[in-house]
Every structure is written in structure tokens, then in C-alpha cells.
Design a protein that fits this description.
The chain has helices at residues 4-23, 65-68, 72-88, and strands at 27-35, 38-46, 49-58, 96-105, 113-121. It is of the alpha+beta class. Strands 1-2-3-4-5 form a five-stranded mixed sheet. The radius of gyration is 14 Å and the shape is globular. The termini are far apart.
């Protein structure tokens, strides 16, 4: 179970990522969508694209850093949670689907480097 400080760090990272996306024209339509299959950090509309966005924050770059932490297992969980989302939100089924990853590198309260990988993986 994550500690309070880890939960706070995660929430701060997701907020930072949401603001970053909004400044680039993405409309955030859902945050922290949860179902039995897992959780989706952010869901946004980027024009005619429904972007499912996984947010990862790492202070250190050991083992590949934030972006490398979205491995095949994590991708499968995101895909399953997305299927659940689309079952519940039928209006979003007509959008083109894209899986993005935002990596935030640096301490939660410090200067961060944000990397947005669009279309990071596919079904």
C-alpha cells in the first residue's frame, strides 16, 4: 500500500501533467478512472483523439527512469482499464484511441523535466 507521501507525490505529478497537457490544447475529461482492471491517470481529448495518459514520476534515472517504467505488464493493465472505460462511456467509443505516457523527471517539489510520448504503445 502506498504511503501518504507517495500518494501526494503521485497526485502532484498528475496535476502537473494535466496542466502541461491543457497548455497544449488537450481537454482533460477524466482523472483517476478506476475499475477492477486498474486505473487510468488521465483521459483527454486531443482534437478528435481520445488520449489515455499514464503519468510516471521518478527522481532518479536508474533502470531507465519514468518512461521505462511503463512495461508490457503495465501496458496490458492500461489497455484493460481502457476497455472498461469505453464500456461505461459509450460516447467515447467513436474517437480514435491513443495511449500516451508522460514522464516527469526530478523531485516532486523541484524543477521537473516533462517528456510527453504520444502514441507510446498500441493495442
Amino acid at each position: 500500500m502506498p504511503t501518504d507521501s507517495r500518494l501526494q507525490c503521485g497526485a502532484a505529478s498528475e496535476e502537473l501533467a494535466a496542466r502541461y497537457l491543457q497548455t497544449r490544447g488537450v481537454l482533460i475529461v477524466a482523472r483517476n478512472f478506476r475499475c477492477r482492471a486498474g486505473e487510468l491517470d488521465l483521459v483527454g481529448l486531443d482534437g478528435s483523439v481520445l488520449a489515455i495518459v499514464e503519468v510516471r514520476q521518478r527522481i532518479r534515472t536508474d533502470f531507465g527512469g519514468a518512461l521505462a517504467s511503463v512495461n508490457r505488464r503495465k501496458q496490458r493493465k492500461i489497455i484493460l482499464a481502457t476497455r472498461c472505460l469505453l464500456q461505461r462511456q459509450s460516447a467515447w467509443r467513436d474517437y480514435v484511441l491513443r495511449f500516451d505516457v508522460i514522464g516527469i523527471h526530478g523531485p516532486p517539489a523541484g524543477v521537473n523535466r516533462i517528456v510527453w510520448i504520444q502514441d507510446a504503445f498500441r493495442i
